[in-house]
Amino acid sequence: MDIWNTIESNDIFDLSRSEVEVIGNYNLKQKNVINIDEAQFQLYTPYEGGTINLNVGFEEFIDTHENEGHSSLEELRTWIREKAFDLENENISFVSKRGILINIGYSLYKPNDDWSFKVCRKDNVLYLSDDRKNEVPTREYLRRASYWCTNFERIITGKADEDDILSYLVAKLIIGDFQCIVAGKTACNDEDGNFMEIKTANSRYYSERIGRGWLQAYLCGNQKLLYGLRDNRGYVNEIKEENVAMVPNKYQRQGYWSASSMLGFIESVLKYLQDNVPEGATCSLRQNNGRYLLHLECENQVFLR
Fold first, then answer.
1. What H or E segment, with its residue span, contains residue 157?
2. CA distances in angstroms from 159 to 49, 123, 166, 188, listed in the order given
3. From CA 224, how far away is CA 194, in angstroms rounded?
4. What is the pTM of this model?
């Protein structure tokens, strides 16, 4: 069922109707949740080494980014269980990993992206879970671009190649009328305790690309956003540190991205899901065919254990 025309994009969403509060954290080691609310984070210190060649190590790089299916949501549900977090008492409507909300919000500007996730309603809470395998890019430039971002984070944080511990923030996210529990991987924090997202972007398109980076940082309560501005060859000549709260007023441009539009559209999609996903059912929500097409199909199988 094509539901695009039934969802209204709220271009005048009031940003004061959205709040984010970091309420916890955890580490992930070989798919096991450890260090609940005592997570280890890499410490960021300003880089002073000059130009960075992000290609170093690419030939030996093996992308092991594999799909964890519904276990990716299980990480967050493990935190909820271990903390005995009362979703009903806290008036939580949605539980989700951050990437799903990023895909929804940024689909306004990337209609050709192909994504899918499952939605399950249990005890009147809607759980959003990744539905597709994360494919490793086949084109060399895309593989390099993916590696550049990974390598830049490693260089900036001093993280060892063999370190397989990932750090996650858990946040309570308010978007309009909905309260959500969201988890997302976070690169590091600085000496003042500010959590930071680390990204790379072509310096020519920075003001346009920072929209997705802002959304990624905002949804989990990161206070800082660090970008390595690179050229087409993978050389970083400038590093920019941004205050997440200041990014929309500083960079958003009509036609490229808008914080109000992205958060407003996320709210609209969440409202549709709340109104249309029945208790106990699992639904699949997809965008494909190179257009703003959202499909909602319900099935009897429930993926939550």
1. helix 140-157
2. 16, 41, 11, 10
3. 7
4. 0.91
